[in-house]
Every structure is written in C-alpha cells, then in structure tokens.
Here is the input.
Amino acid sequence: MTAIGRNETDSQDGRPMRRLRLGMVGGGDGAFIGAVHRIAARLDDCYEVVAGALSSNPERALTSGAAIRLDPARSYLDYREMARLEAERADGIDVVAIVTPNHLHAPVAKAFLEAGIHVICDKPLGISLAEGRELAALARARNRVFALTHTYSGYPMVRHARELVASGAIGEVRLVHVEYAQDWMAEAANQSPDFQASNWHNDPQRAGPTGCTGDIGTHAFHLAGFVSGIQPSELLAELHSFTPNRILDDHVQVMLRYPNGARGMLWSSQMATGCENALKLRVFGSKASLAFDQENPNELLLTPQGGCAERLTRGRVGGGAAGHASRIPCGHPEGYLEAFAQLYRDTAAQIHAVEAGQPLPAATAGLPTVDDGVDGLRFIDAVLASHEAGSSWVALSKTRSA
Here is the structure.
C-alpha cells in the first residue's frame, strides 16, 4: 500500500522528482470543480499552482488569482496570452488544468498543446466529435500527455474491479448495467425561467448538444467500459426533459449491444428525486458478478454463480491497481478527493516519463486520456443520432472515422 504523502513520481535512484508547475484555466472563486482540482493536485505533493486565467470576467480573474496567491504577473485575463507567455518562460508551466464550461475545453486545450504544454481537461473533451479528433491528433503529434478527468476511474475498488474482469474472475461478460442519478435539477429553483436562462448547463452554445448526457452520462459510459473492458457496437437511446422550456435533456436512457453478444443498459438523470450522486455499476459474467456504488466507494461486491456474496474492501485486496491507488490503511475511508488526486498523480508520473524519454509507467495504465474523450463524444453523437431517428438502433462505428 502507498504511504500517505508519498510521491509516486520518485525516480529509480530514490530521489524525488520536482513538483510540476501547474496552470489553470477556469475554476475561479465560487467554482466547485476548480477547488477540487487544486486540492487533488496538492494531495500527493506532485504539483504547485503557479499561473492561471481563472475567469472570463477580468475582475473575478484577478481576485481569484489573489485568493490562491498567484503572482499577479501570472494571473492572466486571457488563456491565449497565458499559453504564449508561459511557453516563453524558463519557469513556465508544465501542464494546464482546464475547468471551464464545455465549449471552451477544445479551444483552450488546443492553444496549450500548440504551445508544447501538457493538458488535464474536464470532460467532455469538447462539444463535437470533430473537435475531439483534432485534439487527439494534436496531442499525439506534439507528444504531450492529455489526461481527462473521469474521476471515478481513480477509485481503488474501481481499479480492482477492472483487474478482476480482465483476469477472467467473473468469466465472459454478459450484462453491463450502469446508472448515474442526481436530483439537483429537480429542485424548484433550478426549474425556474431565470435558472434556465442563466445556467450554462442549459445553453447549447456552452454545454454542447446535450445536457445530462454530456454532463454525467459520459461518466457512466466511461465507467462501464473501464471496468467491463468492452465497448458497445450499437445503441438505442431516448433523451428527455421533464422541465418545461428546458432546451437540453435532463434524462437519458440507453440500451447497448456489444460485439461479444453482451447486452447493457445505461441511464442517467438529473431529475431523480432523492438521489444525490448515485453512480452505480453492475457487471455480470458467466461465473460471477460485480457491483460498485460510488457513494460507498471503499467496497466492491463480488458474487459467484450459486455462491454467497463477498464484500471486498479497500486495503484488504492486496496490491495491484487498488494498492497503487490507495494512500491510507484499511478501515480509514478514502473518497472522491483521493480518486481525483489519483488521476493527478498518474498524470504527473506520465509527464515525467515523457520528459525523460521513458515508457509510460505500467501502474498508470488506468489514466483516462484524450482517446477516452473521443470515445465519449462518439457516444454522445450516437445517442443524438438514435434519439433523432425515433430511438432506433445506431451503430457506433458509423460515428467513427475510417
């Protein structure tokens, strides 16, 4: 098990690698996810935040920079200027975290990749599949690490579940069921005309062509594929909004077909009364099944055919991927922030490897990348295509480049 505070980027000769210089675009005062990124970056002592363009509002950008003690000269009002000037500095940032509304993910990432800077980006990767493909090609051409923050893949027990499936412990995968239910859009204030007009999640120009699907449905889609090890070849989808005058979906349900004959179901809703952040995954194989509940992330349920359910707990499952992603002894709960920090730690290890001209560390294989982001955009495209065709079956391959 990893000791708390240990830097996973230690070199082979035992000397700790330097902290990476991190910049941030978005995530200013009042932005929940910006604070989460900064906490995650600090947890394993792999980064120091040294620059930012923290808001599109100039006054808020400067006050936000001051609040996190940025050098005023490196608290920028424009991300393009930030990318250019940081690339020119001898002590410029190594990597940028992008925590903006969806429509800015791709242009911001492109600017920093072109400046030779590694990228950590919130999902979805962009608001169109074309944007995603362009970013994937650019990241490869520039040999830059591009991490996508599908946070839930950082949980130790999710990584253990992935290992169990890959090892054949549950047999051939037959059924995949994933759900992600929230209720925050069901609150009266969030159904008001003022909220509909002001919140970027309801604006296609900023959120992209979907609402709930792009916001949390992509998390569910990624988790299902991450653990099961299989990707659907076809899907049938229905989008819905329960709120009058809400332009984008607040609910989606999807049936899935897999190349090996497996079947699946995905549903996500932000109108599920009583659900706070209920992300749940079940994978059924020919020999056993697995069940994971994000609100109880230190446990995994393994049930063999004809046998009794076994409750596996973090810290008791040995080393491997779960051990790599754990920080404290069993019985002490780890949660969302540690899972998020795991992505930051894996990203740091990959950046140090790339800069040293070395292979990527095997232990970081679970880090979501730009390619996972492209897969998420393919999923969104296929969901839209199916819904617009009257909820018909659509082949995901038809949304992919040749």
Summary: The first strand starts at residue 20 and ends at 26. Residues 1-10 have pLDDT under 50 and may be disordered.
